[in-house]
Amino acid sequence: MTGGWRDDASCRGKNPDLWHSPATIGYAKSVCRRCPVRDVCLAEAVAAVEPYGVWGGLTALERNVRRYSATEQERLLVLAEVGRGASSVRDLMDRVGIDDVTARRHLGRLERDGLVVVSRSNGRPLRVEVSQRVAS
Ligand code: SF4
Description:
Order of helices and strands: HHHHHHEEH
CATH class of the largest domain: Mainly Alpha
Strand content: 5-15%
Bound molecules: iron/sulfur cluster
Radius of gyration: 15 Å
Structural class: mainly alpha
Number of domains: 2
CATH superfamily of the largest domain: Winged helix-like DNA-binding domain superfamily/Winged helix DNA-binding domain
Largest sheet: 2 strands, antiparallel
CATH architecture of the largest domain: Orthogonal Bundle
Strand order of the largest sheet: 1-2
Number of strands: 2
Helix content: 40-55%
Number of helices: 7
Shape: elongated
Distance between the termini: 16 Å
């Protein structure tokens, strides 16, 4: 795992097999619990419907069992795209396939949850980035 938020992953440099073996799930989850990019990692895995391994502290089964509403899934996808470098509402509209109002609504919620930072001008979002909590 390298690039972007992955550079800050607690599992960086560790054997990925530890995140994919039933015998080491407990260890993987303990590392994920302390990981500063856990939210965006989980968002990526849910958005990609990642079928294997522990991501964001959840196994594939746990990710599947947990019921994400369509709105939650879309919001996680927005977060994942911000983590991948989408920096404007327009980027998010293009990448996620949502309208301006929906993109702003998701950003507002992610901002309240402390996951993204939104710079505004006259109330309009100009630039979005993952928060320090996620990025550092
Ligand atoms: S949350 Fe994701 S990035 Fe962090 S340690 Fe777990 S698998 Fe790695």
